[in-house]
Amino acid sequence: MTVDSLPRTSAVPQWFAELFAHRRWIRRTKPFPHVYAQDVFVPEFYQRLADQLAQVRRERPAEFGSVGEGYSASGMPLGALRDGPLAIFTSREWHDLITGVAGVTATGDMEGSSHHHPPDSPYGWPHNDLNPAWFSGETPGPDEVRLPNPTVATKTGDRAAGVPARETVRAVAVLFYLGNPGWQQGDGGETALYDHLGDGTTPPFLVPPLDNSLLLFEVTPRTWHTFAGNNARERNSLVMWAHRTKDAATQRWGEDRIEYW
Prior knowledge:
By secondary structure, the chain is an alpha+beta fold. The protein is 15% helix and 26% strand. The radius of gyration is 18 Å and the shape is globular.
């Protein structure tokens, strides 16, 4: 386990840098390489993030839907949360920060959503996130972020004839935990990380859903993780992915390692 400084560059605007409480995050090597940080943002900005999510859930409940077939969480796409402080997670500054920490050359394409697990949600199933994602149009420019377009099915690429789209592969995963005040050991709802998928006798490494904390990792064939369930209270987070080109993923892992939907 090591403690790394976040990338420092003159290209990072002052407004962005001032949102962070500190610039030292923990890099862990087990059960697979990942980065963990607590107190990510200064308290005032964190509270604005949590308040916006709570307000949206209160005022726009009909816009929250299942985040996946058979998955216990409901959520709203990050693209629908860009009117307020939560827009930071779809900014180019954030994209470049998380891909820089992971050491990944990414396309500028981002997807993600809020995740809300009600109390007593079931344990999930281990998965590695090495999945394809389709985005419309050309590759984003150096100052752009491209979000999913409803004219292109993000998971499959299905679209009308003549609509251009690019196949990418998830490259960096981030879970940011918020809206879980007072979480304590034993409350459940952690994120479980696995060294391997064996006989089930080795317990997973559990990441607690502490408010204003973050889990980040490069997506590989071995980044097995899941929602640990058994939560005594609701569990909230934002889950997001940056992407690399399909060619880059194939060259590194082999196309047979990509998990198609």
